[in-house]
Design brief:
- The chain is mostly helical and 522 residues long.
- The chain has 22 helices and no strands.
- Helix 1 crosses helix 9.
- The chain is globular, with a radius of gyration of 24 Å.
């Protein structure tokens, strides 16, 4: 009966996902509709699409377990940072200007934005290559953590689980494009919200409630981490400096990730942006804050966790193994939802970028709408297949560096794109040369961190800290290089920023305030 409940819940879940994909086929008849949903997506769908693309199984199983173990309850700061910096500030600072300028420049992808904003086709090509190289391992890393959850809940081989998840995700993305992804993200987001609250309540109940769990955590000590008693339930934890690096990379990093920023391209209106900002922030606070908060209690299970054998990915599954069959099924669907939503966002961003920014006009000069859609759909299947192969190879042969490449990928993408994109939206004097410097600096540093780690200072040997360093360095490099390189063409810049200067004529009779004289009108 227990297995029957789990299987039924999975079948219903997958059925809804696929049904949504075919239902949305009418929205994916042209490139703009397939990639951006016709730029008419409402605040709830956009906010949930942003949140579910943000938080995957990597966060729920990998990061929550790892950072909860390292920093205790203080790991919750990462979730709070995700909500305030990665969601609230991202929407407030990037949302409206991104939507207005990308529509004005007719840009559907981040590389297209770089080309139109800085009048450089080479920037478009280079950024599309960077996205292609670093999103593939990021995509593969989404499957990490699923193996142990499925091993706990079902007697199913990891490879079968990964292939099934990938195929089902591919079906609804290929069929319905962005709109199918957005609607499914909304459904998956609801599952994630309910699931994380239910799981936290169940875990805390098993340890005497919140106060009982905190008291238990206060008794845990680890001399290899800190001699201070009760450090794992303290406000800042045993290592606040490295915790700050986690907060910054996982929060500020979203500002430069193409699959995240692209959500702003598709939103319907300015009113929808304001509403979406609030929804997205609350979603992140519950999901991300809940995940890291849950992970903070991982050391209560230290007698059952063998890090040498299972690594940090074994922590969360061990914590959940005593739950009821129904809650275990909810957790499995929660993690599937988180992974499938992020996977769909990544493969859509990768395939559209490679098609529109590299193949179209470069490899194939003339490419009509039908051929563009066909190539995008084929590439979605190709990207998913590659990520599946990488994930299975990593699991079967225990090639750990592929899993670690998640941090390298995030750091390289955010480091390369964050500063050029942010300054490109706000500062007219940003130059193409400065953008090139940001691209080269971050990709070289992150690749060197992967290949030549001992050459880095101790603090920067962590891919997380190296990624934060690249992001912060880019915020300095771009303005400094811009001041010492050739200024952009004034006429082009005036055209680019004219979208922010649209004047609206209001009849005097409708104006609010004191009567206006003829001289003032003139």
């Amino acid at each position: 009966m227990d297995m029957f409940i789990k299987v039924i819940m999975l079948v219903v879940f997958f059925g809804v996902m696929i049904g949504t994909g075919f239902y949305c086929r009418s929205h994916s008849t042209d490139v703009d509709g397939f990639v951006l949903g016709g730029r008419s997506v409402g605040p709830w769908l956009t906010a949930f699409a942003y949140g579910t693309s943000y938080f995957s199984a990597v966060v729920f199983v990998g990061y929550a377990g790892q950072f909860g173990w390292k920093y205790g309850i203080a790991a919750t700061w990462a979730g709070i940072g995700n909500a305030l910096i990665g969601s609230l500030m991202a929407w407030a600072i990037l949302g409206r200007r991104t939507r207005v300028m990308t529509q004005h420049l007719d840009s559907a992808t981040m590389p297209q934005f770089f080309e139109s904003r800085f009048n450089s086709k080479n920037l478009k090509l280079s950024s599309s290559v960077i996205i292609f190289i670093f999103l593939i391992p990021y995509t593969a890393s989404l499957y990490n953590g699923l193996s142990r959850l499925f091993g706990m809940a079902f007697d199913i081989d990891y490879s079968v689980c990964v292939i099934a998840m990938a195929v089902l995700t591919g079906i609804y993305v290929i069929a319905g494009g962005y709109m199918a992804t957005a609607i499914n993200d909304f459904i998956q987001g609801i599952i994630m919200l309910i699931g994380i609250v239910a799981v936290i309540a169940a875990v805390l109940k098993g340890h005497g409630g919140l106060m009982g769990a905190l008291e238990g955590l206060a008794k845990v000590s680890d001399p290899t981490v800190s001699e201070a008693p009760g450090v794992f339930n303290s406000f800042l934890g045993p290592d606040p400096i490295n915790l700050l690096g986690v907060v910054l990379l996982t929060s500020l990093g979203t500002w430069g990730l193409p699959q995240m920023v692209q959500k702003f391209y598709a939103i319907k209106s300015e009113k929808a942006i304001n509403k979406g900002m609030v929804i997205s922030t609350l979603f992140a606070l519950v999901v991300a804050g809940g995940c890291y908060f849950l992970g903070g209690f991982g050391r209560l299970y230290s007698d059952r966790i063998d890090l040498a054998a299972g690594g940090f990915d074994s922590i969360i599954p061990t914590m959940l193994s005593d739950l009821s069959p129904f809650l275990i099924a909810v957790v499995v669907i929660l993690v599937l939802s988180a992974s499938m939503s992020t996977l769909s966002s990544l493969v859509l961003a990768s395939s559209s970028t490679l098609t529109l920014d590299f193949i179209k006009g470069t490899l194939i000069k003339e490419l009509d709408t039908k051929k563009q859609l066909l190539i995008i759909r084929v590439l979605i299947a190709v990207f998913i297949a590659i990520s599946v192969v990488i994930a299975i190879v990593q699991y079967k042969s225990n090639v750990t560096f592929i899993a670690q490449l998640m941090g390298i990928s995030w750091g390289a993408l955010a480091g390369a794109f964050l500063a050029p994109f942010l300054y490109g939206l706000y500062w007219k004097k940003t130059t193409a040369a400065a953008v090139w410097c940001s691209f080269v600096f971050s990709t070289v540093v992150m690749l060197a961190n992967m290949l030549c780690k001992p050459l880095f200072p101790t603090l920067l040997q962590s891919p997380i800290n190296a990624g934060v360093f690249c992001m912060l360095a880019g915020l300095i490099i771009v303005p400094v290089v811009s001041l010492f390189t050739k200024a952009p063409d004034r006429k082009h810049i005036d055209h680019v920023f004219s979208c922010y200067d649209t004047k609206v004529v209001v009849p005097v009779t409708e104006a609010i305030g004191e009567p206006i004289s003829k001289e003032e009108i003139k």
